[in-house]
Structure prediction request, 285 residues.
Amino acid sequence: MSRNSEYSNPILPLTSDDIIGQPRHFNETHSVTGSIESQSTIPSVSTYAQRSSHRSRMRKIRENFNHRFTVPKYFRRMMVFGSLDFETAFWEMMNLIQNPKRVYKALYYQKQTKNKWARDDPSFVLILGFLLSISAVFWGLMYTTGIFGSTEADFIHDARSMYDPNNSNFLSKYFVFDSILEWSYCFDIHCNAYLMIWLCLYFVQFFCLPLLRMNNFLSTLVGNTLYFFALSYYFLITFYGYNALPFLQKTEYLLSPIIGFVAAWLVLSLSGFNVANYMCSAYFS
Prediction:
């Protein structure tokens, strides 16, 4: 029995395969363990990339939103009165009445220094808006009955002042230019020209209206002349403004409405039609 058991369970000596096989089995186990660990880290890296991509998209959305809805610098300066140059604005108003060319000559020097035709200071617009509002209130209180009539008159006057036919799209149909025309500069020209309309038709006419509404030739002549002068001066200052731009051609066409105003002034005055009386009745009847 002992002899048979010795043959059935022989004790074999260790070989080189047995010695080398153990490390090989260890390397295989280590590689499998490393692959499992690397696979376990893949979801965390993927999650981090997704979060980074989401943050970058949200940042771009915020930047686009802020870029589109940012208040322009021109309007932000209206809230900071310390940065407003009212002295220059009053100087421009005085010279627009006396010598308009001097104002646009100063704007030419501004173009050379700041590379911009339009004003970067809203003082002129604020003063003009204040004058229009005050005059509209006085017109409403003096020549209308009730709060509703006064409010309606204010709305009509302010709506007229904000209408601006001098824009780049309008001019591109009639004038040739090869440069970008600033819309803000067109608005500045309109405000400059509207100053004389305010002076003649809002300020002077307010005090002279009882005289202008009389039924005689002198009242008709003075009233028609007042409107003719205000409208003609509006187009004259508009011409000076666009004529200062070196890339515009045929700007003299802006003076053509004055010819029609002269003809209308002659016909209406000789026929006894009082424009001042008619406009007052249309607004405040």
Summary: The chain is about 75% helix and 0% strand. The chain has two domains: 1-70, 74-284. Residues 1-7, 22-26, 36-43, 162-168 have pLDDT under 50 and may be disordered. The first helix runs from residue 2 to 8.
